[in-house]
Design goal:
With 443 residues, the protein is of the alpha+beta class. It is 26% helix and 26% strand. It folds into 3 domains: 279 residues, Rossmann fold (3-Layer(aba) Sandwich), CATH 3.40.50; 88 residues, no CATH class; 62 residues, Nuclear Transport Factor 2, Chain: A, CATH 3.10.450.720. Helix 4 packs parallel to helix 5 and helix 8 packs parallel to helix 9. It starts with a helix and ends in a 12-residue tail after the last strand.
Length: 443
């Protein structure tokens, strides 16, 4: 691996003789790791990630696109080091009600947060680049937890929500030194100038959203780089300029994680994962709380979940408020309804709550969001278990036939896990899998 000369010089100054161990590790193969959902009892290997009980290392990297369980949201392919975020949640904000994941695409940390937080929490996942925000929404929909909002906003837009969040997670855009082994392109893009630029941009992002965090709220700041400018120096700046204190983490005996003066580092030559830095801080500076807007004068709409061809029900039915939004029908957790309506008004929301379906005439066309949701009562709908080849055909959005099934909307399942809907017409079916999600490669 041909590392930039200035990177070698700077990182040698940081690590001393250990740099040679890092260099050797960077020439090796990055481990493959996944984090499993609680949709089913799925154990993909016998080697777990020490700091994340739902994380596993795989012996080799399979073709994930060819696995229907991947598309069903049974697991997420995530770099092991970044799973350390779950310890920050457990140790410092296990009961947070409102959480913001600011730089969330493609969704690794957001799917982790949505599982680690209480079911009654609201997670707002933001991505400034619209094309990446679509991918973020897809991954969160497939994960299946309903109390989420996906937004496509500039960090400065969150000024509209002062003192709103109990916790904010910022996995900041960085120079990517920790990903050199995984992404050779990051080596060619690296420069000292870019390090300086990234550090300044990170401070700008932090300043933009600092007021959205409550006093005594928790900030998790992380990067996938090694240098101190983007890591410890920025954390020190947060403490001194914005008003915060760094919080310690219990490493639970994981001594290969390196504790520094302002955070925790993961080095590929010491931990089984890529380069990563994480720090947890408590906000000390005061802030006025958000003046929550009163709900729009909308009465709780009782939408009869029945159409010409389709009936369904949600688990714990009293928990939900069903609201029409133009031709869409959505379900919101009653305890969070005001929050959903408030965020929907303040930000550019691409996905909010649980989309049940779209009304066309007298028919309700069920959504992929409902099919993949953990709160759909699957006993209330007709479902069909399909074999591997049929599952792949369905995920390619090809026509499949179900001659032994009744007509109407049918939930397609593989190994007991929902993939999506078809409308069975008898001699053929209409495949309702989202066009933008379909498998494009030949399997």
């Amino acid at each position: 691996m041909n590392l930039p000369e200035n990177f070698v010089r700077r990182t040698t100054a940081l690590l001393g003789e250990e740099f040679h161990d890092l260099e050797k590790a960077l020439e090796g193969t990055a481990p493959t790791s996944v984090r499993v959902n609680n949709k089913m009892n799925y154990v993909p290997s016998d080697e777990g990630v020490a700091w994340c009980e739902t994380g596993y290392y795989l012996k080799e990297r399979p073709l994930f696109t060819a696995d229907p369980l991947f598309h069903a949201g049974v697991y997420y392919v995530q770099e092991a080091s970044s799973m350390f975020l779950v310890q920050a949640v457990k140790q410092h904000f296990p009961n947070a009600r409102t959480v913001l994941d600011l730089c969330a695409a493609p969704g690794g940390k957001s799917t982790l947060l949505s599982q680690a937080l209480p079911e009654s929490s609201l997670l707002v996942s933001n991505e400034i680049v619209r094309s990446r925000a679509y991918i973020l929404a897809e991954n969160l929909i497939k994960w299946g937890n309903p109390n989420i909002i996906v937004t496509n906003n500039d960090p400065r837009d969150f000024n509209a929500l002062p003192g709103y969040f109990d916790a904010v997670v910022i996995d900041a855009p960085c120079s990517g030194e920790g990903m050199f082994r995984k992404d050779s392109g990051a080596i060619g893009e690296w420069s000292e100038y870019n390090v300086t630029l990234c550090a300044a941009r990170q401070r700008e992002i932090l300043t933009s959203v600092w007021d959205t965090l409550k006093a005594d709220g928790i900030l998790v700041y992380s990067t996938c780089t090694f240098n101190r400018e983007e890591n410890e120096e920025n954390v020190q700046w947060i403490c001194e300029e914005l008003g915060a204190e760094m919080l310690d983490m219990d490493l639970h005996g994981n001594q290969d994680i390196t504790a520094t003066d302002y955070g925790y580092r993961f080095y590929p030559h010491k931990t089984k994962g890529e380069g990563f830095f994480l720090s947890v801080l408590r906000k000390l500076s005061p802030i006025q709380s958000t003046q929550k807007n009163k709900r729009d004068d909308k009465k709780n709409v009782k939408f009869v979940t029945k159409s010409n061809d389709f009936t369904f029900s949600l688990q714990d039915s009293q928990r939900w408020v069903i609201l029409p939004e133009e031709n869409l029908i959505k379900a919101y957790d009653k305890s969070l309804l005001n929050d959903f309506l408030f965020i929907n008004k303040q930000l550019k929301c691409m996905h909010s709550g649980l989309l049940l379906g779209e009304v066309k005439g007298k028919d309700l066309i069920p959504s992929a969001s409902m099919a993949l949701s953990k709160v759909l009562d699957t006993e209330s709908v007709e479902k069909v278990e399909v074999d591997y080849r049929t599952a792949i055909d369905f995920l390619r959005k090809e026509a499949i036939t179900l001659p032994d099934s009744s007509r109407g909307y049918i939930l397609i399942c593989f190994n007991g896990q929902a993939l999506g809907w078809v409308k069975n017409l008898g001699n053929r079916t209409n495949n309702l899998y989202p066009q933008e999600w379909r498998i494009r490669m030949k399997i």
